[in-house]
Specification:
Strand content: over 45%
CATH topology of the largest domain: OB fold (Dihydrolipoamide Acetyltransferase, E2P)
Radius of gyration: 20 Å
Largest sheet: 5 strands, antiparallel
Number of domains: 3
Structural class: mainly beta
CATH superfamily of the largest domain: Nucleic acid-binding proteins
Number of strands: 14
Number of helices: 1
Strand order of the largest sheet: 7-6-5-8-9
C-alpha cells in the first residue's frame, strides 16, 4: 500500500505489529519532500503513535475481514455484538466504538472490522434514521442561532435540527458528522 492509498480505518503492518490508521494528513512543505503524517493505534495494546511516511513510501497492509453483525446491547463498559452468519458473540470496548457510541440502537446491523481475527473497529452506514423523543418547541422568529434547536433522539444523543422538527418525528443523521440531514416522511 502506498501513502496515497491511506484511509482512516485502514490496517497496516508497522515494526512487526498491526496498527489501525486513526487519522492521516498529507503535508507538502515549501522546501523538502512531501510526506504523510499519520496517527496509528495498536490493535492489541491500544497504544497510539504518530508516524510520518515519505510520499510514495510503501507499507504492508494487514489482513482485514468485514463481517455483518448485530449490535445486541451495551453493559456500561463494553458493547456486545453477534455475527449474523456464525452467531458467534463478540465484545468490543467503548473506545473502539468511540464516535458511534451515541448512535448505537439495540438490534441494529453494523459491520465489524476484524484484523488478524480480532475485532478492532466498527463501520456504520453513512446515514441512519432515528426517532425524536424530546424536542423543545421552536420559537417563532427565533432565527438568531441559524434556526436550529437541540433535540434528543432515541439513543439519548442530542442533535441540532431545524425549528420545525417536533417530538415523534423521524430524522436522518449523517453518522460521520452526527449532523441532521433531513426529516423522514412517515409511511
Amino acid at each position: 500500500m502506498q501513502t496515497s492509498d491511506f484511509r482512516k480505518g485502514n490496517a497496516v503492518k508497522y515494526n512487526g505489529e498491526t496498527w489501525l490508521i486513526s487519522d492521516f494528513q498529507f503535508v507538502n512543505p515549501g522546501k523538502g519532500t512531501a510526506f504523510t503524517r499519520t496517527k496509528l493505534k495498536n490493535i492489541k495494546t491500544g497504544k497510539a503513535l504518530e508516524v510520518s511516511f515519505k510520499s510514495g513510501e510503501s507499507i504492508e497492509e494487514a489482513d482485514l475481514q468485514y463481517r455483518k453483525c448485530q449490535y445486541m446491547y451495551n453493559d456500561g463498559t463494553d458493547y456486545n455484538f453477534m455475527d449474523n452468519k456464525t452467531y458467534d458473540q463478540f465484545t468490543i470496548t467503548k473506545d473502539l466504538v468511540a464516535e458511534y457510541a451515541d448512535l448505537m440502537v439495540d438490534n441494529s446491523e453494523v459491520t465489524l472490522v476484524f484484523i488478524d481475527g480480532v475485532p478492532c473497529s466498527i463501520q456504520m452506514p453513512p446515514k441512519l434514521d432515528f426517532k425524536v423523543i424530546a424536542a423543545p418547541p421552536g420559537e417563532k422568529g427565533d432565527t438568531a442561532t441559524g434556526g436550529t434547536k437541540p433535540v434528543t433522539i432515541e439513543t439519548g444523543a442530542t442533535v441540532n435540527v431545524p425549528l420545525f422538527i417536533k417530538e415523534g418525528d423521524t430524522i436522518r443523521i449523517n453518522t460521520e458528522t452526527h449532523a441532521y440531514v433531513e426529516r423522514v416522511q412517515q409511511k
